[in-house]
Structure formats: structure tokens, C-alpha cells
Amino acid sequence: MSNIVKQLIPLLDRVLIKRAEAITKTAGGIVIPEKAQSKVLHGEVVAVGPGSRKDNGDFIPILVKVGDRVLLPEYGGTKVSLENDEKEYHLFRESDILAKIEN
Fold it and tell me: Where on the tree of life does the source sit, at the highest rank (predicted)?
């Protein structure tokens, strides 16, 4: 993980996720065109905010942690491009994450 990602700390219940790479080649070596590739619906948690707040000001902890693999919705999230980093990241609210994938 780059130092730039370590400097980015999501606010409240936001989670920074690096989407998994799309499969561009089959096991037999056939290259899949971009338009035929399916959208990647899972990724890895890179950074986590402190959580949302209750009415009394206490934080509600987030259920995912850095390094967790999660299932994402097809649409949603905010695309984040970091300088000097060619990877693409997305910011999601914790409530938008569909599931946590156990190894």
C-alpha cells in the first residue's frame, strides 16, 4: 500500500476500497474485450473511518477493517484517484457494503 493511501483517512462511516482487477484473459489464453468484461463486485478495504456518531456523540464502530475482502453493489460509491498512484479506489458508506467475504 502506498504512502498516499495511508495519508487518506475516510470520515465517519466511509470505507476506502480498492476494487479487484477485472479478468481480462481466460484460462485458455483468450483475451476478453473490455465491453464483454463483467463489472467487478468485490474489493479489498484499504482505509476505514472512525464510524458514525450516535446522538450523544459516541462513535458506532465499523464492522469491517483494513484488509477485509467485501462484496460491493453494482452501482454507487465515489471514485477516488490519488496523485502518483495509478490504482483506482472507491469510497463507500459502510451501509452500502453488501457483505464481508471470509477467506
Answer: Eukaryota
CA gap 13, 50 in Å, rounded: 7
pTM of the shown model: 0.77
Give the residue from 35, 17, 13, 33 showing the smallest Cα distance to 25.
33
Q: Give per-residue pLDDT as tens, 1-13.
A: 556 566 788 888 8
Q: Cα-Cα-Cα-Cα dihedral of 43, 15, 80, 84, to 10°?
A: -80
For 63-91, b/e burial (b = at least 16 CB within 10 A) is ebeeebbbebeeeebeebeeeeeeeebbb
